[in-house]
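Continuing the series of single-chain predictions for the mutant panel. This is the parent chain; the variants come on the following pages.
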Amino acid sequence: MSVIRLTKEFKFEMAHALYGYDGPCRHIHGHSYELFVTISGRPISDPTSPHFGMVMDFRKLKEIVRGKVVDEFDHSLVLHKATAPADLNGLGDFMGRLILVDYPPTSENMLADFAGRISGVLPEGVRLHSLKLRETVTSYAEWYASDNIE
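Parent structure:
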């Protein structure tokens, strides 16, 4: 049976700041992100399976990506914890959802983080092929499993 790729698209809103960056992105600002998740595998060949002919149910892929990435990052402010001001946590409801990460929250770093979150929970026989994160209408970053073989 052939290896098939499936892609599911997700959208979320998120703010970030790139402390120390030499342009306006050093200030808190937001984006309407589009995340494209592509998996690959062989369709299930067991005719008694309710998922016969599927690599993976799109509904299950949606549950995984929403649970591990979208629901956490949507409408959040993401900052590098090493450079985030200490008094942000005291702003309570005004601050909303604050995520402090171990990296500068660039599209590139977020993709590497997302890849780790998603690939570890995919069903047996299904692998994460690639991720594409569109930050603006004209800019995106991509992550490919084949580029990250260690």
